[in-house]
Model the fold of this input.
Amino acid sequence: MERINKNSFTPPFYQLATILENKILSGQLKAGESLASENELSREYELSRTTVRKCLSLLAERGLISTHQGKGTFVSRPSLDRAEFLMEEFHTHLTNMGKEPGYRLVHVQFLKELPEFAVRLGMKANQGILYYCRLLMADNEPIAVEHKYMQYIKGRPILENEFQYKAFSEVIMIHTDILPVRSQAILTAEIAGEFDAKLLNAAQGAPVLKLQQALYAGDNKPIGVGIFYYRGDRYSLVSDIHPLRGER
Amino acid sequence: MERINKNSFTPPFYQLATILENKILSGQLKAGESLASENELSREYELSRTTVRKCLSLLAERGLISTHQGKGTFVSRPSLDRAEFLMEEFHTHLTNMGKEPGYRLVHVQFLKELPEFAVRLGMKANQGILYYCRLLMADNEPIAVEHKYMQYIKGRPILENEFQYKAFSEVIMIHTDILPVRSQAILTAEIAGEFDAKLLNAAQGAPVLKLQQALYAGDNKPIGVGIFYYRGDRYSLVSDIHPLRGER
DNA sequence: AAGTGGTCTAGACCACGAC
DNA sequence: TCGTGGTCTAGACCACTTT
Done:
């Protein structure tokens, strides 16, 4: 049995995690089987139970095991047929990729009515709706168009500068003093409409990733909704599921 | 100052997390500001430092704070302009949604050459390539088509049944005895090709979510690649980012 | 009653950053 | 040097499941 090296720079909980992960990935521990109990592992590897638990919680986070109070800890399917996509805010995403984000405010308008999809999400027009449309660019190439609809508060100034550069949840907070606390988003594939295709400098019928987003206040009422259309040929999401590194 | 109720069924670390989360969401703690140190929090709320740390790690996981050794703990942007999408394996996804998954094996074939995108991913043909194509359905409606390319091992039987029902990583392991340990996937929007559109029972030019997946062995060599095309109008990904519940 | 995971405590030592 | 977060220990009590 492999042992824990207490002089290594890699902490014991991490060493144990890689040991157990290897047993799972190599098939020594098969899906559905139960692991040794926390107390047993603690004895076997001469670690405190706290340390064993920290290791197990790491493996659980990664989907390799699942724990059940009173029953034990079990190996999960080594499910690689699975993907996790993180869609960052546009500015963050581009700077991470080493590109220059650009913004163009295309349209700002006051509306009395909400578009149909916003009504379906349970949003109300109240005092009116502030609509704006923005073009997102990377190194001056258009990547996405976004359409935003938010509650309008009478008497509040409409600051176009803010629309151009700030994230939607900030714009909402500045205009309404309400900080959104919940966000729901739906991602699908669609064909770009004529208006959006033209802005994106894409051909008629070009495929886009459509992201529909709703922001909710603390009372769970939607206070802003938005739609993004990302050019399919210039924007993609990446998922990488890999084993723990031996060292870190 | 709010205090921890030690008689509540909600554990202290969770109570503290909601207290701190509320301070962040309400704006009492602004982005970039530093939190009280772990020792201070420990004194203030009369909890052990271990418990305080468990609470902080929960908030860090949720992106509300970030910790920096030697410097302190800082409030992050309340970034709601962000989305996390989890794409489960098809069978799991459908049963979660209460639908009946269905599979139809469309094609199985031995190839001598790999398609161009697989070569670009660094895959080699070696003894040959096993290709198959499968139609994925929900309640008998076509949802997605997948094309898989994997290493062929001479002399090994080709079991069509397995292709129809098993996950790709299992099929690979059964045929090659190699268990993939790493998966990389790229998601974009595209227009369905003629062949795929027909299988999906969709119109010419219909938009699809394209998922390109590569599975790697322990030596980081690709041993199988696949492409999924999901009908844009029947498949979508959902993200929900919300505050901690008061009770649990 | 015995065994399992879930939570908590009080104290220790270390690595890192700022002074 | 001091304060910060990162890790570890040994022991305790609880809730849940099985016997």
User: Anything to note?
Assistant: Strands of chain A lie at 65-68, 72-75, 83-87, 101-111, 129-138, 141-151, 182-191, 207-216, 222-231, 237-241. The first strand of chain A starts at residue 65 and ends at 68.
